[in-house]
Sequence to fold (323 residues):
Amino acid sequence: MDGYHVKRNSVNNISDSQFEKVSIQVAAFYKFVPLDDLETLQREIREICKRAGLLGTVLLAHEGINGTVAGPAAGVEKLFAYFHQFAGLEDLGSKDSWCGQNPFYRMKVRLKKEIVTLGVEGVDPRREVGEYVAPEHWNDLISRPEVRLIDTRNDYEVALGTFKGAEDPQTRSFRDFPTWVETQLDADRDQPLAMFCTGGIRCEKSTAYLKELGYKNVYHLEGGILNYLEKVSVEDSLWQGDCFVFDNRVTVDHELNEGRHELCPACRMPLSEEDRESPEFEKNVSCPKCIDRLTPQRRASLEERGRQIELARARGEKHIGSR
Fold:
């Protein structure tokens, strides 16, 4: 993938030749809002994205919408014009960035029970959530010694980068978070808790959950890590490492440039340069994290997929499974 990638707010400052390299808009969005007739929404969103040349994933549930799409700016504008017709979505916005090639392979619109799966009945961020903290004020909050800083993301995301001093709950999925709260979080309901995630949506659910449990001083980073990386300079930043994103860029750095990680084709875990230099790494097949877990059938399938990728590359074509 072309690694040229810039923040949205710098697009107007680049030359025409540079703009050709960053002509794909990546728009991430979510909102907790009551939605009905999900099947109709699913069908219409699919059709609009197809006509607008957009790829990505949109999740729909009765509690709201969550998605990331990528494509030409005019296509993104058409999709949001459609969203803005609906009550509760009139002000739906997005966190935007730009890249040279579409970071998605296809367009998926899925119906779900939750747009982010906590697995606890009755948690409703529309009713009550933690206090939003703007990126410009986040450093002051998390530098206070009495504040417990908690990363609500999964363990493989935390391993790639996090805030200085943040606590890793070591969860494999967001469904594990309530168990961590029950077993590891102090019973002191007055302790200040500061929470963060990639784009903000997991913190909407996690802080709503904690408020329902009676925790009083709960804060979360407004707009998530991506908003912080956009608003806070590298010189003033307390962020360390890269941020995992849920598309084929895999990670972005503090400048929101595409990172150097890749996904393992077998286990889909992010791989660093060190992982890819390991003797246990096999290109297009497996990595040190999953080499011992592959069945002969799975290995044969991945080897054939890798062969098809290389054949497509030799023909000057792009295989749908290649990065």
Notes: The longest strand covers residues 24-32. The first helix runs from residue 16 to 19.
